[in-house]
Amino acid sequence: MKKLIIHSVPVAVSFMWLSVCCKTCNPIALTGPGFLKFYLILTAGFYISVFSLKYFDENVSKISLVFMISILMLGIVKLIKGLMIGKPVGYLVMILIFEGLVILFLSGVQST
After folding, report:
1. How confident is the model over 15-20, as a mean pLDDT?
2. Membrane-crossing residues (predicted)?
3. CA gap 83, 7 in Å, rounded
4. pLDDT band at residue 109, thresholds of 50, 70 and 90?
5. What separation in angstroms does the CA of 82 have from each of 32, 44, 85?
């Protein structure tokens, strides 16, 4: 339960930023720069919480992996939307590659 609360805080903060600054609750509806700001707030906050748990010798749990994969799927959905309408998606691709590598690293650490 503690990890669920810790991981929910960055998600709540990023969605509060989304509703206050962008006046929407749908991150997919944002334009490229707006979505990148939202996505960087979300990923940075979430991975800070994950690495802070690792710093305090907590294991990466299944709920952490579910959150990570959910965030990755949100980015992939926006990537597909950007490709379909012909927008540049280079920064998002780089973020998704980095995020995938972090997920692989953390899931490999979990299994050992």
Report:
1. 93
2. 38-56, 63-83, 89-109
3. 30
4. low
5. 8, 22, 5
